[in-house]
Specification:
Number of helices: 9
Largest sheet: 6 strands, mixed
Protein name: Peptide ABC transporter ATP-binding protein
Keywords: ATP-binding, Cell inner membrane, Cell membrane, Membrane, Nucleotide-binding, Transport
InterPro entries: AAA+_ATPase, ABC_transp_ATP-bind, ABC_transporter-like_ATP-bd, ABC_transporter-like_CS, P-loop_NTPase
GO cellular component, one term: plasma membrane
CATH topology: Rossmann fold
Distance between the termini: 19 Å
CATH superfamily: P-loop containing nucleotide triphosphate hydrolases
Number of strands: 10
Helix content: 25-40%
Number of domains: 1
Shape: globular
CATH architecture: 3-Layer(aba) Sandwich
Structural class: alpha/beta
GO molecular function, one term: ATP binding
Radius of gyration: 19 Å
Bound molecules: adenosine-5'-triphosphate
Strand content: 25-35%
Length: 267
């Protein structure tokens, strides 16, 4: 496996503009570095407010780091134009279902990223890519003409995944994207992601509180505590020999969620 993503010394400070202490600087992330190989899945875990979403947003380009650099295949990510960057990294947000526009058909919502990405394809070629993508996420050609409210929540989540993969990115960042789903649907979506990873070689970065999801899908785990990366290593190493008590606590099994075993599980 070759190195896909390299995160070097990224940090993030926010300055409060209002409230009790305007102008006060908050350190959301102390400088941290890690790397990810092609096709690997990384899980980011930690308590509330520890900086997990901040890392996810910086990798996806939704936030700028206060310092540090990110490289993808050796190329500096922050020097890329948005159109180029979104061909490499796409994000599925916490409230991804609400990010679907209720007034636009599924097909048009999937065409949008392709139109934004001026790659010289004809409309017919783009539509062909959209139909292929619907198939990859387990939807039917007729879903192209559906509006989001005509789909179940599991199908809507598949549209969100389709929107993330339609540009064939190398990394997808999912920030607690599946937490609100019914457990059986969530298991199907997680298994879909494992299939996509095998078929398309996409690397996933998950922000999650669920040890079961982490054990099921991730190759590596990054543990955050109050803006600091306190542990980073392979899933196997952190499960069998955690160096921090917080790591052991976060990885204790939760009984609320079980992913039915799948042939491609990483366990
Ligand atoms: N836009 C912002 N302005 C000011 N402070 C922010 C902003 N975004 C995040 N923070 C602060 O940065 C810190 C890290 O936030 P972040 O959302 O990354 O944590 P998290 O680990 O993802 O938490 P959660 O699990 O609750 O989503 C928190 O103290 C948060 O209040």
């Amino acid at each position: 496996m070759s190195k896909l993503l390299e995160v070097r010394n990224i940090s993030k400070y926010y300055t409060h503009k209002d409230g009790w202490l305007p102008g006060r600087r908050i350190c959301a992330l102390e400088p941290l570095s890690f790397s990810l190989e092609r096709g690997e899945t990384l899980a980011i875990m930690g308590e509330t407010g520890s900086g997990k979403s901040t890392i996810a947003k910086i990798i996806a380009g939704a936030e700028k780091p206060s310092s540090g650099e990110l490289f993808i295949n050796g190329q500096a990510l922050d020097k890329m134009a948005d159109q180029q960057r979104c061909r490499y990294v796409r994000m599925i947000f916490q409230d991804s279902l609400r990010s679907l526009n209720p007034q636009i058909t599924v097909g048009k919502q999937l065409l949008e990223p392709l139109l934004f990405n001026h790659d010289g394809r004809s409309l017919e070629e783009r539509k062909k890519r959209v139909f292929e993508t619907l198939r990859k996420v387990g939807l039917l050609p007729e879903h192209y003409h559906f509006y989001p409210h005509m789909l179940s929540s599991g199908q809507q989540q598949r549209v969100c995944i389709a929107r993330a993969i339609v540009l064939e990115p190398q990394i997808i960042v999912a920030d607690e994207a599946f937490a609100a789903l019914d457990p059986s649907i969530r298991a199907q979506i997680i298994n879909l992601i494992l299939d996509l990873q095998q078929d398309m070689g996409i690397s996933f970065i998950f922000v999650t509180h669920s040890p079961e999801i982490v054990k099921h899908v991730s190759d590596k785990i990054l543990i955050m505590h109050r803006g600091k990366m306190i542990e980073f290593g392979t899933t196997q190493a952190l499960i069998t020999d955690p160096q921090e008590s917080l790591t052991a606590t976060l990885l204790q099994a939760d009984n609320n969620y079980k992913v039915p075993l799948h042939s491609t599980t990483k366990e």
